């Protein structure tokens, strides 16, 4: 006998998916069925919940989302414009990746596609897709805050300017509240529009996407929304999806008339404490770049490379279509002046 393990590829059912995902240490809230259902509804996608089994054990799962553009089948996990920080395959620790990947790509579920783009979480081990014909697009770096330290240590680790701004917000009467319904959404949308308008852009998500996010994640208890109030006025809001081990800073907004109040420092500090109270292990700021990256750094997180973006196309026209699509996304976000 050769000892080679047979890898069986099949489609998981909705009813089994979240139980399967919970077996994988690298899982994120974006791999869960509530988020995938949100994407399908918002972008009219078909979901493929792929699982790989060896010796009766599930050794990998891969949520893919399928859409058609004319004769072309495009598969994303995720695609740009989906407001999804992480996705892609999840592998059991120690599993031999080569036979699993070969079986997945040779399965009927992923055999016929025109363009395939995805991210692979590779924080703990290198995963090379170049032998499968994929090109590496980018490495994704994020700021992660370890919540295992005592609250006093987390506070002392903050940059002094951050602590000062938190105290200033408290002295000026800023109060943080948990949002228990969707009444915040209109204010949040207006805040987001004001924030991105400074860069002559629209928000990277729609008002409808934000509403669907709350509709799908709140019943699953996978989102926390915090708002800062000055007296009776809501002045800033954070939307924070989470799973059973990590809280993610998905989006935040602030009314510009209150920009001199350091409400965002207090909001993120409150979110960190809420995540710790919930027993979560990490607070993920999602990305490190630009001015927002400098702000996030004041909370003393660790910069970590966590994922790699990959793509491949099987038609020469796809490159032009991809460029047009990315140009469309840019034009859709540009404010008309």
Summarize this structure as a short list of keywords or feature phrases.
337 residues, alpha+beta, 10 helices
Your description of this structure?
This protein is α+β, with helices and mostly antiparallel strands. The chain folds into two domains: 7-139 and 307-333, Aminopeptidase (3-Layer(aba) Sandwich), CATH 3.40.630.30; 148-280, Gcn5-related N-acetyltransferase (GNAT) (Aminopeptidase), CATH 3.40.630. The protein is built from ten helices and 14 strands. The longest helix has 18 residues, at 316-333. It is globular and about 65 Å long. The protein starts with 6 loop residues before the first strand and ends with a helix.
How would you briefly describe this protein structure?
The protein is built from 10 helices and 14 strands.
How does the helix and strand content classify structurally?
Answer: alpha+beta
Write the CATH architecture name of the largest domain. Answer: 3-Layer(aba) Sandwich
Q: Determine the N-to-C terminus distance.
A: 70 Å
H/E element order: EHHEEEEHEEHHEHHEEEEHEHEH
Average pLDDT over all residues: 92
**Count, helices:** 10
Task: Output the CATH homologous superfamily of the largest domain.
Answer: Gcn5-related N-acetyltransferase (GNAT)
Question: How does the overall form come out from the CA principal axes?
Answer: globular
Tell me the Rg in angstroms: 21 Å
Helix content: 25-40%
Major pleated sheet:
10 strands, mixed
């Amino acid at each position: 006998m050769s000892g080679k393990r047979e890898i069986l590829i099949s489609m998981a059912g909705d009813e089994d998916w979240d139980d399967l995902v919970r077996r994988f240490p690298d899982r994120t809230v974006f791999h869960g069925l509530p988020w995938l259902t949100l994407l399908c509804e918002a972008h009219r996608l078909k979901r493929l919940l792929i699982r790989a089994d060896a010796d009766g054990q599930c050794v990998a799962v891969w949520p893919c989302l399928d859409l058609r553009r004319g004769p072309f089948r495009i598969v994303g996990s995720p695609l740009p414009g989906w407001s999804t920080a992480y996705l892609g395959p999840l592998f059991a620790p120690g599993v031999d990746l080569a036979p699993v990947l070969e079986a997945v790509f040779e399965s009927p579920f992923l055999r016929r596609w025109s363009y395939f783009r995805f991210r692979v979480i590779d924080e703990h081990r290198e995963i090379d897709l170049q032998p499968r014909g994929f090109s590496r697009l980018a490495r994704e770096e994020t700021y992660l805050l370890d919540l295992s330290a005592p609250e006093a240590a987390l506070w002392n680790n903050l940059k002094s300017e951050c602590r000062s701004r938190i105290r200033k917000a408290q002295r000026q009467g800023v109060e943080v509240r948990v949002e228990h319904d969707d009444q915040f959404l209109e204010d949040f949308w207006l805040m987001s529009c004001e924030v991105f308008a400074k860069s002559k852009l629209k928000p990277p998500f729609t008002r409808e996407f934000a509403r669907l996010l709350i509709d799908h994640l709140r019943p699953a208890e996978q989102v926390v929304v915090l708002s800062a109030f000055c007296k009776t006025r809501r002045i800033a809001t954070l939307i924070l999806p989470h799973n059973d081990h990590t809280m993610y800073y998905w989006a935040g907004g602030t009314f510009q008339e209150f920009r001199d109040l350091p409400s965002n420092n207090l909001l993120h500090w409150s979110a960190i404490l809420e995540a710790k109270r919930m027993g979560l292990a990490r607070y993920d700021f999602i990305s490190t770049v630009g001015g927002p990256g400098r702000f996030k750094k004041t909370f003393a997180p660790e910069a970590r490379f966590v994922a790699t973006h990959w793509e491949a196309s099987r038609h020469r026209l796809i490159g032009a279509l991809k460029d047009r699509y990315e140009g469309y996304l840019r034009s859709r976000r540009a404010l008309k002046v």
